[in-house]
Amino acid sequence: MSARKPYYVTTPIYYVNDAPHIGHAYTTLACDVLARFMRLDGYDVHFLTGTDEHGQKVEKAASAAGMEPQPFTDKVSRNFRDLGQLMGYSNDDFIRTTEPRHIKASQAIWQAMAAGKSPKGRDNIYLEKYGGWYAVRDEAFYGEDELTKRDGKMFAPSGAEAEWVEEPSYFFRLSDWQDTLLKHYEDNPDFIGPASRRNEVISFVKSGLEDLSISRTTFGWGVPVPGAPGHIMYVWVDALTNYLTAVGYPDTKSEIFSKYWPADLHMVGKDIVRFHAVYWPAFLMAAGIKPQKRVFAHGWWTNEGQKISKSLGNVIVPAELVAKYGLDQLRYFLLREVPFGQDGDFSNAAMVRRMNTDLANDFGNLVQRVLTQVNRNCNAAVPQHGEYTSADLSILKRAHDLLDRMRVEIQRQSFHLALEAMWELIAAGNRYVDAQAPWGLKKTDPERMATVLYVLVEVIRHLGILAQPVMPISAGKILDQLGLAADERGFDRLGLTHALEPGRALPKPAPVFPRFVVEGEAAKAQG
Ligand code: MSP
């Protein structure tokens, strides 16, 4: 038996005290679809998500809640586990950065960085005094030229207030890694996607890198720096290390580490590309560890044209959308509506349009009308086909080719294009039904009717199998209606070889994609 190829995909770990919103749900959804797709395609997948629980921001939030940080994070990290349940994520692990395995890994990477030399032969980590601007909300340092002064206070470009901090600090010699990083980007053209982000990162690095302050002494909620009492790690050093912790670091000889590291993909939002595509590979190389293979940065969602923010009171709560529209409908919408990598706008009108047009009218209608006819006119069993016409062969070929087309798109994170390819087959299927008009053949040419319906059942089988990563529940219902057993649903069953055998009994069909009726229109429809 040949070993399955490993695939390791990660989401950013979420700031533990934030209330989960649609932006959080989006990053993990994209990873979930990838993970499901790769599993069905025969890969041995490790899919990681979790919560980022250290830092000044969490310490402050805990104290505002009148709690110690640890019980506070125990409580609020549940919100992100609940989000996972709600959205149907299939993650293999959920990491919390306050777990002992993670403290151990963070201290180990620190020691490995400290033990190594930079490309210019100097210590990677050195002690200095730091004076600079720090925004707690962003957990990030800023140069004075990046800040705006208002009412005697300083603000970062994100709107977060920055304060002056002065304290002894360990520094990471990032400046020495500039050429190594640039060479890495050049040698690995797929390291950062999409291309626009890659160009941004390259010009940022070319403009010159400054050493990075990586420890703090003025608060206590974090991972202690080994051998340096009073210092705790800058939260991003600890946070990024979660990707290693989850595969067993520092045990680099372990089976799990050798199998999954380097990670295949770190999925991130566009706001945290710099941490993942500049700092993280530099930390890894400094510690003598191979960098991840790829970072992909997606865009940001706005709500009906407005930036989503707690202060504007327009946060989109995933649970409300799932309750209103349905889980698969939301999953489909988020990945179809906006080209992955670009910013997008959530609007209820667009959501309803996708539900009613793409899902109910196109996909749902194709499945429904074909399976109803098979049920009625073919004794509720897979029909027996005769000779194929060129029209039959042409649509069957499209169905057989769909996996290859989708695979290319999914592997470069173009989820919208993978779905577009799928909808091209759905449209072709509907045109084929209209052109062949099998209902008219029942009396005149029942054999031809059976062939046409057989071809359509095969088309639906391909669509159902390939829809599973994005819409697991609805696709499951379609495959149930084709009587497929669990082991008949993988991508290895696609193509001609595993075509359904005529005569297989089919259960009674039921609609899979309901139309969404907007309030008011329902009343109108009822007169
Ligand atoms: N804790 C850090 C990540 C550390 S990874 C080692 C963090 N957390 S976060 O909770 O603020 O953000 C997590 C992810 O959610 C980011 O990828 C971010 O881009 C994404 N989003 C937050 N708001 C968003 C939108 N409005 N739209 C799309 N994604 C957004 O950053």
List the helices and strands and how they pair.
Elements: E1 6-10, E2 14-15, H1 22-40, E3 44-52, H2 56-64, H3 69-87, E4 93-96, H4 100-115, E5 125-135, E6 140-142, E7 148-150, E8 153-155, E9 161-172, H5 178-187, E10 192-193, H6 195-206, E11 212-213, E12 215-216, E13 232-233, H7 235-245, H8 255-260, E14 265-269, H9 273-286, E15 295-298, E16 301-303, E17 306-307, H10 318-325, H11 327-336, E18 344-346, H12 348-377, H13 390-411, H14 415-436, H15 441-444, H16 446-467, H17 472-481, H18 521-525
Parallel strand pairs: 1-3, 1-14, 2-3, 3-4, 10-15, 14-15, 16-18
Antiparallel strand pairs: 5-6, 5-9, 7-8, 8-9, 9-11, 12-13, 16-17
Helix pairs in contact: 4-7, 4-9, 5-6, 7-9, 10-11, 11-12, 12-14, 12-16, 13-14, 13-16, 14-16, 16-17
5'-O-[(L-methionyl)-sulphamoyl]adenosine binds at residues 12-15, 18, 23-24, 26-27, 52, 239-240, 242, 268-269, 271-272, 300-301, 308.
Task: Please outline what is shown here.
It is built from 18 helices and 18 strands.
Keywords summarizing the entry:
15% strand; alpha/beta; 7-stranded parallel sheet; 527 residues; 18 strands; binds 5'-O-[(L-methionyl)-sulphamoyl]adenosine; 6-stranded antiparallel sheet; 18 helices
